Structures are given as C-alpha cells and as structure tokens.
Amino acid sequence: MTQSLRVVFAGTPEFAAAALAAIHAAGFHVPLVLTQPDRPAGRGMKLAASPVKRFAVEHGLPVAQPTSLRRNGKYPEEAVAAIERLKATPHDVMVVAAYGLILPQEVLDIPPLGAINIHGSLLPRWRGAAPIHRALEAGDAETGITLMQMDAGLDTGAMIREGRITISPTDTTATLHDRMAQLGADLIVDALRDLERDGALPATPQPQDGATYAEKIAKHEAALDWRRPASMLARQIRAFDPFPGAFGTLDGVVVKIWEAEPVELTGNAHPGVIVDSGPEGVVVACGQGGLRLSQLQKPGGKRLPVREFLAGSPIVKGQRFELREVTPGA
Q1: How confident is the model at residue 325 (pLDDT cuts 50, 70, 90)?
Q2: Is the preceding peptide bond at 262 cis, omega within 30 degrees of 0?
Q3: Which of 53, 98, 108, 218 has the fewest CB atoms within 10 Å, counting from its CB?
Q4: Mean pLDDT for all residues in the chain
Q5: What is the DSSP letter of 312?
C-alpha cells in the first residue's frame, strides 16, 4: 500500500537500515537518504558503504553523503550543498536513526512536520552515542526505543512514544541490538501512519530527572580490570560484544573474552590469578568473587569454547592476568 507521506531518512549503521527497510516496505515515499561518507573497512581497509547506503542503492533511493551539515564547521561547502539539496527535495518529515552527524537547528527546521529520532534507550536514561552498551554495562533490567521529536540538544527532545525490552542475563550488545532495531522499525512505521492520518503526533517533554549520558565506547575500556567485582566484569564482557571485545593479557598475550559468568570464591586469591582451569571454564579471581571464562579468542584466532581453546593454548592454575592501570588512550 502506498502512503502519501514523504520521508527523508538519515542514518548509517544496521540499526538504522532496519528502520529504512521497514519505512520503504510500508509504502512511504523516500525522496532522499542521508548517510555518512564511505569509510575504510575490513582487512584491506577498502572504502565501504554504510548499511543504510547499501539498502538505498539496492532500492533506487537517492543518497547524499555530506561530511558535515554545519555551515560554520570544517566542511562548509559540503554542508551548504546538502542543506540546499534538502530544501529542494519536497518532503514532509525527516526520520533520523544513528546518523552520527550533528543536525543543526537550520536542518531540523526544514521538514514541515519536523524530525523524528529513533533512539535506543528509554529516555531520559542514556542520552548519547552508546545507549545499548551502557544499559548492559550498568546492569539495567530493561531498555527500549524512544521516538523523539528532535531539537538542537543532545537527545533532549519531546518523547513521542516508546517500546520496552527486558534485558536477559545472557544478552550481549549484539543480541539486544537486533531486537531493538526491529522494535524501532515497528514503532516508526506505526508513528508515520498515525502522522499521515492525524497530521501531528502528541509529544511529552522529557523529564530532567534520571537523565544519564551514554559516552561513546573507547578502546581502552575493553581491558578488564580484575580488581573490579566479577559481576561488573561479566556485564562489561556482554556489553562489549561484538565491539570492541573485552580482553585480558596473559604472559604478554592478549586474550579476548566473549563469555563469562560470576562465581563465588573461597580464599583470598589476588585479582587476576587463575584459581581453576578445565573444560568447564577458566576461573579468575576478581576484586570481589571470581569470573568463569567460557569463550575465548587469541590473536588471529576464532572465538572458541574454553574446552577447544585450552586444547591449543593451555592456561593453568596459578597463572595471572596482568594488572595495569587502565587510563584513557591506553
């Protein structure tokens, strides 16, 4: 069924591509897709299109890839050209999902019905760049998607609607991402249908109470600090799967840790010391309790269940993961 509402879409990763696919499948006309410029990727570091661009090209949707949309930024000519193209493209509303560029007020003012953001948290909790990772890392019991009317602030706009997802004890950023992408896609299609029918969407201002900021994930955070409680390290491991992958360093070798669970320990082993090692797991003493590691990866290798990993790379009781000061940029 074809809809009359014209939707400009702005997004970059898989999370956004799921929403664009749903909007397109629902019959909404998409006269322009904005996505980030192609970036080097893979071992050969060849330029690769974003998932959103790949979908747009496959379905014949016009694409623009400005480096910036700020006239007073580093790339004013690109920004001006993109803004002029937006103004010249007849549309009713803009939908934004994990685009990765700042949209100045000038851009937000172009769509007659405003800009709707698909945000991966229950706002005002986890405004910012990495809401899925941070919800997992913090041990939140639930998360979800908030549709938000965009303003010039950082995820501060009025909330249109939300959908909730329970976080399971085994969820990783990868598994949670896929469920949230589907939820976001469903929510935005329903909202656009309501917008087409009613001409407006009711929105509620965000409370300031409970606002938190989801900092972008930095690579130095992937190093596990064994002095922390085991329960926190287990959450960190799940939050950093698939990127950047939590790790420890054992005898100078970086070992990525993909699955682990906290266990109770008796005695007072020093943090980082391996207190048990066998086919059921490698148990490491932590600042509080122990962590049983069950899926590991060595440099250049694959993720392996601990039984297979140990067959090729023995780890024995008494060895110790390095303790190092974890500082930004390290």
Answers
A1: low
A2: no
A3: 218
A4: 95
A5: H
Is the Cβ–Cβ distance between 8 and 107 less than 8 Å?
no
C-alpha span between 131 and 214 (Å, rounded):
5
Buried/exposed 77-108: b ≥16 CB within 10 Å, e otherwise: ebbeebbeebeeeebbbbbbbbbebebbeebb
20, 34 contact by CB (below 8 A): no
- Which band of pLDDT confidence, cut at 50, 70 and 90, is reported for residue 127? very high
Check residue 31 and give its pLDDT: 98
Distance between CA 68 and CA 102 in Å, rounded?
A: 8
> To which residue do tokens 């702005």 refer?
10
| Cis amide bond preceding 31, omega within 30 | no
Give the pLDDT confidence score for residue 267 in this predicted structure.
83
Cβ contacts of residue 297 below 8 Å, gap of 6+? 245, 255, 256, 258, 303, 304, 309
Tokens of 18: 């799921």
**Burial (CB count within 10 angstroms: exposed 0-12, middle 13-18, buried 19+), residue 155:** buried
The DSSP secondary-structure symbol of 223 reads: B
User: In the structure, what pLDDT confidence band is assigned to residue 73 with cuts at 50, 70 and 90?
Assistant: confident
C-alpha triplet 31, 161, 236: angle, nearest 5°:
95
